# Entry
Amino acid sequence: MKTLAEVAAQLQGYDPQALSADAVNDFLARLVEPVAGIEQAGVFEALGRVLAEDIVSPLSVPPHDNSAMDGYAFDGAQLQAGAPLTLEVVGTALAGKAWQGSVGAGQCVKIMTGAIMPAGLDTVVPQEFAQPAGEAGIRIPPNLLEPGDNRRLAGEDLMRGRPALARGARLGPAECGLIASLGLQAVAVHRRLRVAYFSTGDEILSLGEPPREGAVYDSNRYTVFGLLTRLGCEVIDMGVVRDDPSLLEAAFRDAAAKADAIITSGGVSVGEADYTRAMMKKLGDVAFWRIAMRPGRPMAVGRIGDSVLFGLPGNPVAVMVTFLAFVRPALLRLMGSTENPPPLLRARSAEAIRKKAGRTEYQRGIVESAPDGSLQVRTTGNQGSGVLSSMVRANGLIVLHHRQGNVAAGDEVDVMMFAGTL
Ligand code: AMP
Ligand code: MG
# Structure
């Protein structure tokens, strides 16, 4: 495990007081390593987990050449350009019940979708194109088919002995179905990441407490809980921790003992009168960053014991944005995932947006299809870092990059869609 100083030494021009969003991700990618611990998971339990070993196909899918349609199977070598083909039907092949007889020239077999192609046959005429001919025959119109049509080849999906899934893949519905298609009952996955989180601040009320002047209800624990749960983490909710050195020390020590990562909100801005920063410094190897971004800016990062610490700002939108921009990719790496972040979407801005170059802005955006079918995005209005309703109305974050300046109406902008993360 690298110390902060070791990581900082690898980075050119590292300045904790002026970090770009890219530099933050670069730093975090070097700081965190996948946690150890592998377990077997049944295919249902594997959903959302990260694969810990490469999977090589133990069998071919499909196992045999088979029909892609309900129709009649025949030897395609008999097809002649411009001429119809008349065939005698000599049997039926059902899915799960192969037809064993032999088929000669001028003959065909009625076949169902998924049924094994009888020996020597490579082409299927779909039922709806086969015209009745005589007692027990069909006529295939001219120029309808090529040899090999409507046949699925053995192993065209997955070939026995070939790589099927690489370690580091996050297992979604498609991956789980694919694993099952290989007949595998269980796979090796990384153990679930344990993440402890708490909110700090004397003005923060827990649910159930009566309102009082100057105090606000804690929303950050609920957004962080949701973001972590969507990511497939095991969550350890530690409540709201009062601004009291002994309570904070106990909370940090407890979290570090139990969790792979600790997420706190509040108390990391410069000039905070509280003890959160001081306690982080006392207990761990922690840097206090000022990030050139909006919303967000202050963030504490480091380690307490063996746990990675993410000290997020207090403002509710800043918590979500810093989570999506920095914490989520770092947690994925801790989970053993090797997936790349999804590409940003390009959309036309419906409005002019004021933006200062030299910081990254994450504006809450609503992406819609314009009448001409292109993608268009508008902001949700008030972009205050405490306006959580802006996150509710938005379906993505408009990412205005570090060097970017003002946006004119009609300009294309990048959007990080929430798809699946919120
Ligand atoms: P701080 O970063 O501690 O200065 O907090 C910045 C702002 O976020 C203040 O207005 C806090 O009241 C608010 N805030 C801090 N923590 C929470 C929380 N858990 N839930 C809702 N708002 C919070
Ligand atoms: Mg505070």
About this structure: Residues 4-37+192-334 form a domain with the Molybdenum Cofactor Biosythetic Enzyme; Chain A fold (CATH 3.40.980.10). The pocket of magnesium ion (ligand 2) is lined by residues 201, 266-267, 272, 274, 314 (CB under 6 Å). The chain is about 20% helix and 30% strand. Helices lie at 4-10, 21-31, 173-181, 220-230, 245-258, 276-283, 316-334, 389-393.
